[in-house]
Amino acid sequence: MEILRDIDVSDGRSAEVWLRSATARELSSEPRLVTYPNLLTPPVCSYLIERSAPKLVRAQVYDAVGGALKTDSMRTNTGAVFSLIDTDVVIQLIRARIAHAAGVALSALEPPEVLHYAVGECYRQHVDFFHPALPNFAEQMRVKGQRVMTCLIYLNDDFEGGETYFPKIEIRFRGRVGEALLFHNVRSNGSGDMKTLHTGLPPTRGEKWLFSQWLRNRAQPIA
Predict the structure, then answer these.
(1) What is the pLDDT of residues 81-112, one digit of tens each?
(2) In a domain? residue 222
(3) Domain that holds residue 192
(4) Is 203 within the bounds of a domain?
(5) Which 3-state string (H, E, C) describes the chain?
């Protein structure tokens, strides 16, 4: 694939070099927030946008009461989920690079999603970890484990607004093209960290594209 030449991946050895070459910059130590300024190249970001645009549907949230996905006013953007059959070698390499940066096995990654935000669309304040006191969340954790980390990669930057905002630690992050934000959703003892409460603020001009990847603490079923 031509896109692989852009990241200098032609065989297993060059792929291994690429997977290990991401460099980190710490934004916060508690909770731990780390950025990777050049996790992806602009052509790879454009490739992801092109692949995702025809697949966009209204984004959903997990219902702690009903135990299923549902649309909700707290999340008004659209998204495209990539199942195993949708995932090509480029997306799988991206997931492997994220896994290596996070220090987890590739099998611990959920299916990725590309998110699209038009002007005014947002994801209101939420946390990404599961609350074990809620029955359906406890079952989710029993079957698939806890969401211990989140990785967001900015696929474009030709918009205004649209920061990822952490109100409890007063951090607003707006990445450049290809820049990733990796944050830990749980404390060292495994309990959910409410300091990771965050919101996807709405763009005020243009449109925002993100690659979103959740990471769990155990291997995921094939999906």
Answers:
(1) 999 999 999 999 999 999 999 999 999 999 99
(2) no
(3) 24-216
(4) yes
(5) CHHHHHCCCCCHHHHHHHHCCCCCEEEEECCEEEEECCCCCHHHHHHHHHHHHHHCEECCEECCCCCCEECECCECCEEEECCCCCCCHHHHHHHHHHHHHHCCCHHHECCCEEEEECCCCCEEEECCCCCCCCHHHHHHHHHHCCEEEEEEEECCCCCEECCEEECCCCEEECCCCCCEEEEECECCCCCECHHHCEEECCEEECCEEEEEEEEECCCCCCC
